[in-house]
Amino acid sequence: MFVAGGVVVGLAAITMAYLADHAQAAFGALLSYSRYSALLVTPLGFGLAMLLAVKVFPNSQGSGIPQVIAALRLPDQASRAPLVSLKVAFGKVLMMVLGLLCGASTGREGPTVQVGGSIMFAIGRWAPFRQPGFLLAGSAAGVAAAFNTPLAGIVFGIEEMSRSFEMRTSGLIIGAVIAAGLTSLAIVGDYNYFGSSAATLPLGKAWLVVPVCAVVCGVAGGIFSRILILFAAGLPGRVGAAIKRRPVAFAAVCGFGVALCGLISNLHVYGTGYDQARAIIDATSGDMSGYGPWKFLATLLSAVSGIPGGIFAPSLAIGAGLASDMSLFFPHTPISALVLIGMVSYLTGVVQAPITAFVITSEMTNDHAMMIPLMTAALIANATSKLFVSEGLYHALARSFLKTHVPDKAAHAAASGS
Length: 418
Description:
This protein is mainly alpha-helical. It folds into 2 domains: 2-194, Clc chloride channel, CATH 1.10.3080; 205-395, Clc chloride channel, CATH 1.10.3080.10. It is built from 20 helices and no strands. The protein has helices spanning 2-33, 38-55, 65-73, 77-80, 86-101, 109-124, 131-147, 150-162, 167-188, 209-233, 237-245, 247-264, 274-281, 291-305, 312-326, 335-351, 354-365, 371-385, 393-405, 408-415. α10 crosses α18 (371-385) and α13 (274-281) runs parallel beside α15 (312-326). The two termini are 29 Å apart.
């Protein structure tokens, strides 16, 4: 059942990647006719996505990873089902595509985790005594298939989803990851998400960039998480009450803000950020000055709006953009090396999963020469981020779902990991 589930998750991840690419291409074609069309299409798309998420597909909002974390901590199948059902998975795919079709700065990797968990949850009904293992394996397989990074999928399942290593589930995670990875390999072939990088960081003054970039990007990632957690918990006063009463209108306002960011940034900040990050790594991006801050703002608006969509790929793009802007201050550091450090540092700052961050970046670029600098940057960025938020973003966001689906005492115990 784990192998069969891994194959299905791999197929789902490939399908989502195909749909995401074509949705972004369709929005790009619209912008080629009129760049100002985003001022109408993006707010309407955000509003429609949020309406569907609230009325038709509840529990599909946001990344999807917090829902799976919450489901892992819930005590039984009945309480888990609303968070990881096949209906939620279908809605997640539909609205992820809708978001990218209207220019949202979101990714597909977080939604792939929820979809993978939902698929494995459905299959796991045949073995309810192993249900947490199925959920964990599905989420890990989703990351592995989405990025073509099998090792990162395993690390993500252990470090971020379970926050532990249990011998009884480790083999199941690896089995599902292998099945999903082989499915992706058979259909789309062997590839590196961001191509191959030969970046190196020679010992000497070039290493000064590691702590500096890690602190800057760690601060930015910590601020991003802090703001997103505040909005998820509900802002105090009249503003928070208004957002709670009118989530669709608030999403449309956020969509208008994203459209403005797109116009100011010369249309660069829409979508996952994959093309822009790869161009920055390959030094073929042309003038991308200011891309990092504008991508940060567009991604923050997309995330606080509540529409379904991930932050993994946009976070990597933001890190690449911020590091690219810093290259003027570090002329002795190879730009490709600086960008990889920025990607790892910002992603770590957001999710506070340092091992996942440097493993996934190394696998996506097939660059093992940068492993030690990336490890160092991840640890510094993680410590810096904790100055702004005490726990990882996904685990903080999971609390709201726990409070909704179990009584207060049980939710508190689950949130505490007991």
